[in-house]
Amino acid sequence: MTTPHTFSRHPAFDLVNPDGEPSLILVCDHASNHILPEYEGLGLGAAELSRHIAFDIGAAAVTRALAQSLGAPAVLSRFSRLLIDANRGFDDPTLVMKLSDGAIIPGNAHADDDEIARRIARFHAPYHGAIAGLITRAAARGIAPVLVSIHSFTPVMKGFQRPWSFGVLWDKDGRLALPLLRRLRQQPGLIIGDNEPYSGELEGDCMNVHGTRNGLAHALIEIRQDLIETQEGVLQAAGFLAGALRDAVPIAQAHASKGGPTMDEAKREAVEAAVFRRLVEHLQSRSDVQNIEMMTTAGFCRNCLGDWYKEAAEGLGQTISKEAARERIYGMPQAEWKAKYQRDATPEQLAAFEKSQKHG
Ligand SMILES: [Zn+2]
C-alpha cells in the first residue's frame, strides 16, 4: 500500500506526534542507517553500515524521547545519509558521499546527476516536505514554530578525541541557540560546545532551509555518541535536553513575537487569513447588502470574492469549482443565497450600476 508521502513501501520519513503542540518541531536528519535492498548496501558490509558514517547513532532514540516528553511533533529520516544526506543542500558536494571517514562508498562511485535526482525525489524531497508540512500546519494556527534538529557525533574523528558532551550549532540567529547554550552550561561536569564539533553555518542545510529562510528560530543539537549508546544514556540525555528546551524555547518565542521583519511572514499570513474570514462573516451577516450595490459603489461583489478565491487556490495548484469557491463566500450555495436574500434590482439601482460601469 503506497501512502502519499512515499515512492515505495518504504516511507522516507517517520512522523511522530503529528498532532502534537507545534510551537516546537523536532527533526532528525540522520536518524536511520536503512538502505533499501535494491541499493545492495551501497557495496558496504554490515559493520560499515552500523558505523557513524551511515547514521547518527542514538539520535533517533533521543528525538523520540524528546518528542514524547515535550509533546512535540518530530520528523525522522528513514534512509541512510550514505544514500543521500538530508542535511545538505542540492549544491553541496557531500550530498552523496563517495568517501566518508576513511571508507569508500562503492555504490556511490557512479552516482551521476540522474541517480542523485532519483534519490532526491525518493528520499530527500519527501523528508523535507514532511518538515515543511508541519511548519505550514503550525502557521495555519498562527504559530511560528521553533525548530530543533537532533544529531550525534562520533567521539573520535581522525584521531582527535572530541571533548564536548553536547554541542549547539547555529549560524546568525541566536534566538534559540543563545538561551539554550546558557541553560546547558548550568549543568556542572559537562562540556558544551558552541558551534562544536562543527560550525552551524552551512548554506542549504536543514536548519538553513526551514529555519533561516522562513525566519523561524532554530538550533541544531549535537550529542556525543558514547553518551547515548544505551537506553539509560538516551533517557538521561533526553531528560537533560528536554529541561533545557522547556526553558529556552519560550525565550526564543518571546523574541519571535517581538517581530523581526522576516519572522512573522507565517504569522502575517495567518492574520491576513483571519481578516479574510472576518470579511466573509461580515458579508454573510449583512445579507441586506445587495451585490449590485457593492458593484456600483466598490466595483466588486460576493461573486468577485468567490472568483478571487478560485484564482488564488489555482495559483497554489488547488482545483476548486466556481460554485464551490462562491459557496465559501456565501456560506451556502449561491442559488440558496439568491433565493433567500437577493432582491430584484430597482430601476434606480440598475441605472446607478450602469453608470458606474461606464465610469469604471
Ligand atoms: Zn548528523
The CATH H-level superfamily of the largest domain is Zn-dependent exopeptidases
> What class, by secondary structure content?
alpha/beta
Percent helix: 40-55%
What count of helical segments does DSSP give?
Answer: 12
Largest sheet: 7 strands, mixed
Q: Which stretches are low in confidence, meaning pLDDT under 50 for 5 or more residues running? A: 1-8, 258-263
Instruction: Write the CATH architecture name of the largest domain.
Output: 3-Layer(aba) Sandwich
Q: How big a fraction of the residues is strand?
A: 5-15%
**End-to-end distance, in Å?**
56 Å
Q: State the strand order across the main sheet.
A: 1-3-2-6-11-9-10
Q: Specify the overall morphology.
A: elongated
Radius of gyration: 26 Å
Number of domain units = 2
User: In CATH terms, what is the fold-level topology of the largest domain?
Assistant: Aminopeptidase
List the ligand species. zinc ion
Q: How do the SSEs run, as a string of H and E?
A: EEHHEEEHEEEEHEHEHHHHHHH
CATH class of the largest domain: Alpha Beta
The strand count comes to: 11
Give the integer mean of the pLDDT values: 89
Please explain how this structure is put together:
Helices cover 44% and strands 12% of the residues. It has 360 residues and is an alpha/beta fold. The protein has two domains: 13-257, Aminopeptidase; 286-359, SMc04008-like (SMc04008-like fold), CATH 1.10.3340. The strands form three sheets. It has a seven-stranded mixed beta sheet, with helices on both faces. Strands 4-5 form a two-stranded antiparallel ribbon. A hairpin with a 2-residue loop joins strand 7 (156-157) and strand 8. The chain starts with 12 loop residues before the first strand and ends with a helix. Bound molecules: zinc ion. Zinc ion (ZN) binds next to loops.
